[in-house]
Amino acid sequence: KQYPAHTAICIRDGWEFCSPELAADSTFSFLLEQWKNKLPQDYIVKTAYVDHPFEEDPCHCHFSFTNLSSEGKLVLKYQWFLGGKTPTGFVPIPEELSEVYWPKSEDVGRCLKVECTPVLNDAEFPPVFAVSLPVCLGTGYPKVINLTVNGELVEGNVLKGVPQIAWCGGTPGKGVASWLRRTWNGNAVIDGAEGMEYQLTIDDIDSSLVFMYTPVTEEGVKGDPQCTMTDFVKAGTPSVSNVYVVGDIVEDNTIKGNGKYFGGKEGLSKFQWFREKENGGFLLVLSNSTQYTLIKEDVGWCLKFVYTPINLEGQEGEAAFAITEAVRKAPPKVFDLKITGEAREGSKVSVTATVTGGTVASSRVQWFKASSSEFVNDHELEALCTSKVSKTFRIPLGAVGCYIVAKFTPVGPDGEIGAPAYAILDDVVETLPPSLNFLTVTGEFSEDQMLTASYGYIGGYEGNSLYSWYLHETEDDEGSPLSEASGLLQYRIKKEDVGKFVSFKCIPIRNDGIVGEPGVFMGNDRVTPGNPTVLSLELNGEAIEGTTMVANRRYWGGEEGDTVFRWVLTSSDGTWNEIEGATSSSYSLKCDDIGFYVSVSCEPVRIDGVHGSLVTTEAIGPIIPG
């Protein structure tokens, strides 16, 4: 009471005071000695002090005693007090009875006091107290005081990270949590595991987990991340749940048994199918398969699918089963009918379906067009073809702007017909832009040959598409248009075209005037000349000695070269002799020729040396004297 502003701390056997003045105060020393003399011999204070307190940071007090009786049981009771800016006016803080106190924001600048009451062998002694410095403002940097993970480390269980945070003056916010899987070759972040809770999966078996937490205040200040590691995760006991059978319980259909396995990695689990017996119970019909095809003997009876879970180590769990409804025999029926393909003019579409009580191959399909995607019956549809077994169809031009509908009629092996089903393309059929789906030129690229162009047009109704022919010196030049063949699909090659390339160009135009991309067909080879040919050969002149006979011929087949002439004299008995040295197109009759008949043969030769077929005139004569 005489010294309220000072704190005395007992350290070992001596005493230290907050100020030298107090230590030198003889009155205080006398009072202190009196107090010490009142303590029992087994009640000697060794340490009594409080950590420097900070806002929202755990503050620990430290009290210890020495020279206690070896048989004594010491219990310490605590009570925290809040004072003013100086260590005066302390009032008890309700329910703060532990060794640690977390100073609050309103405690900043005020001193703390903690009383420690020792209880030895159920005997309570006078309390010892310690006083702190004023509580300081928190640093604003949160820190993790303690970090634990709660939950059983068995596959399927949920673990929960429990951090204890000192916010140190910051506004409590949402921290950043993550879970890592620790294996023999390092840590791996678990995708999506970013919450305070995490459910153990099969991938976690035989691994330990690391829970990492970074405290973050509302102001965005991050503290240092802390982590804690678990023991190894164990696999769960093999079990199976949600056992069920999928598929229509109809003769000839294949059904499948499913179940959700749990308990580590699955090994060779057992799958069994049983058929209900007439006198009760079930008969095993198939093992080691999750699928079963229903047969004639199953009609009218229920089936049971049994799933026995077994893990990779061979440990067997409790079996679970599912029982189907009675197998029924049904007429052919179609399921999952769909049209695949694009809703575009000229596109090929097809139907896919599942048929029970029949086969897809024997079923029939008819294609229609509809003005609306919602129709009630066939009367609202316009047929595009007759019913066929083919499941593919090419969309015609007439279906543009309409919906394509497929009518699928299932047919059984015995010809039994089931109820038809309909499928419709989601979009209306679009017209393509005017284009060519093929372009070709037929004919021989040779002198005097006729070339014919043909093409395939798609993209609505064709208008006045443009055609033109070109001559090219090389394959890469633009070419010169052949005006005489403009707008024609045919062109006859002329002599002037020899040695050049010929191309055909078509510009597709729709009937509404829309122009598409032009198509060009270029001949692979240069135009070749025709085979050298003598179209006509005449021998002009009178068969009189001294007359010059002239062979007039009409040549065809590229540029003419050195055509070969041979003059022949034929006697009245049919023997003939070639006149030596007479190799030109003319010959003057001589005296020695009198009485003979004269004729000439012509072998056409092209400028490149190619020879044609020999042509011979009729003999004229006999030659008479001049």
Please give a quick description of this structure.
This is Ig-like domain-containing protein. The protein is an all-beta fold. The chain contains two helices and 45 strands.
Any guess at the CATH architecture of the largest domain? Sandwich
Q: Can you tell me the number of structural domains?
A: 6
Mean pLDDT: 84
Largest sheet: 5 strands, antiparallel
Q: Tell me, what is the CATH class of the largest domain?
A: Mainly Beta
What CATH calls the topology of the largest domain is Immunoglobulin-like
Radius of gyration over alpha carbons? 56 Å
**Uncertain runs:** 1-19
Supply the helix-strand structural class.
mainly beta
How would you portray this structure in words?
By secondary structure, the chain is mainly β. The chain has six domains: 130 residues, Immunoglobulin-like (Sandwich), CATH 2.60.40; 91 residues, Sandwich (Immunoglobulin-like), CATH 2.60.40.2700; 89 residues, Immunoglobulin-like, CATH 2.60.40.2700; 97 residues, Immunoglobulin-like (Sandwich); 88 residues, Immunoglobulin-like; 84 residues, Sandwich (Immunoglobulin-like). It is built from two helices and 45 strands. The strands form 13 sheets. Strands 5, 6, 8, 9 and 10 form a five-stranded antiparallel beta sheet that branches. A four-stranded antiparallel beta sheet has the order 14-13-16-17, with no helix packed on it. It has a four-stranded antiparallel beta sheet with strand order 21-20-23-24, with no helix packed on it. The longest helix has 13 residues. One of its GO terms (cellular component) is plasmodesma. This is Ig-like domain-containing protein. It holds the Pfam family IG_AIR9.
